[in-house]
Amino acid sequence: MQNKTIRYFGIFIAFILIVSIRFFESKLFYDPFLHFFKSDYHNKSLPDFEGFKLLLNLFLRYLANTLLSISIIYLLFQNKMHVKIALFLYLILFVVLIIVFSFLVFGLDKPDYLLLFYVRRFLIQPILLILLIPAFYFQKKTE
Fold it and tell me: Residues 69, 126: contact at Cβ < 8 Å?
C-alpha cells in the first residue's frame, strides 16, 4: 500500500510540474510566438526572434516535458519496455518536429501559420503523453 501511495504521489508531483511549466512558460522560456499566436496573427508577419535562442528553449521545454512524461509513464506502468518505447517515440517526434518547425520558420518567407501553430504546439506541450497512457494501458490489459 505504501509503495502505491508513493507512486501516486510521484505521478501527482510530475503532473503539477507539467502544469507549472505551462503556467510559467513566459517566465521560464524564450518564445516570442507565445504572444504572436494569442493575438490576431493571421494578417501579421512573424515576430522578430533569435533563432538559436528559440530552438534551444524549444528543446529545453521539450526535454522537461519529456522527462516528466517518462516519469509518469514509469510510475504508472512500472515497465521498462514502455519507457524505452516512449523515449524512442519522443526522440523521433522531436527530430521530425524540429526539422519541420525550422523549415517553416527559417525556410519560408510566409509560412502556413496554422501548420506552424500545431507543430510548435506538439513541441511545447506533452501531447504524446496523452496518447501513450491509453495505448500502454490497452496493451497492459490485452497481455
Answer: yes
- What is the span of the domain harbouring residue 132? 1-20+62-143
pTM above 0.85, yes or no: yes
Task: Identify whether 45 is part of a domain.
Answer: no
What mean pLDDT is predicted for residues 47-70? 96
Residue bearing the bigger pLDDT, 35 or 20: 20
Residue 70: how many CA atoms within 13 Å on its side-chain side? 17
Report, in angstroms and rounded to the nearest whole number, the Rg of the chain calculated over CA atoms: 17
In a domain, 26, yes or no: no
Please give the Cα distance from 23 to 111 (Å, whole number).
28
pLDDT higher than 70, residue 1? no
Number of domains, the chain: 1
d(CA 99, CA 91): 12
- 34 in a domain, yes or no? no
Residue 47 counted as domain residue: no
